[in-house]
Amino acid sequence: MGNDELFNVKKLFKKDLVLLDVECKDVFDLLNYLSNFALEKGLVYPDFKEAVIEREKSFPTGLKMPQINIAIPHTDSKYVKVPQVIVAKLKKKIIFKEMGLEDNDLPVDIVFMLLINNDGHQVFLLQNIINLCMNEEISKKLLSSNSQEEIFHLIQYYYETYAEYCEDVSN
């Protein structure tokens, strides 16, 4: 992977796609809310919502990281118009099923909804977000941040500072 592809990962994050204090009753209410947000922004096709909910039921996306629990919901690229990542910091943790351990309930702090319009980029982007959340300094700051701008700049800082590390992991 070259620097252009890493730069593209950084470009998938936009300040206006960082949502704070998101409050929903459960995982499916949250996916409905985030899907409607993406649809209003013109980022996805109308059938994205149903597809991402069905995929979450079959293949849960909750991940336990050392400092933070995250979820990375996504679906097939055919439902996405514009590749982006929606970051939702939850007001109260929401229970997701844990990826690979569907019987485990995982209280999630932050959701990274992937809007990918090229299936070939999915694994690379997943690896990059996992690397971001494995970073102790970054994950602690993500949890303590209370502003859209701060979270956005923190993610940008990570990709500027650790890009070579992410590049090595993805090869």
Strand content: 25-35%
The number of helical runs is 7
Question: Are there runs of 5+ residues with pLDDT below 50, and where?
Answer: 1-7, 164-171
CATH topology annotation: Mannitol-specific EII, Chain A
Radius of gyration (Å): 15 Å
If classified by CATH, what would the architecture be?
3-Layer(aba) Sandwich
Overall number of strands: 5
CATH homologous superfamily label: Mannitol-specific EII, Chain A
Major pleated sheet: 5 strands, mixed
Structural class: alpha/beta
Rounded to the nearest angstrom, the distance between the terminal CA atoms is 7 Å
How many separate domains make up the residues?
1
As laid out across the biggest beta sheet, the strand order is 1-4-5-3-2
H/E order of the elements?
HEHHEEEEHHHH
Rounded mean pLDDT is 86
Which overall shape is indicated by the principal axes computed on the Cα atoms? globular
What brief labels describe this structure?
alpha/beta, globular, 27% strand, five-stranded mixed sheet
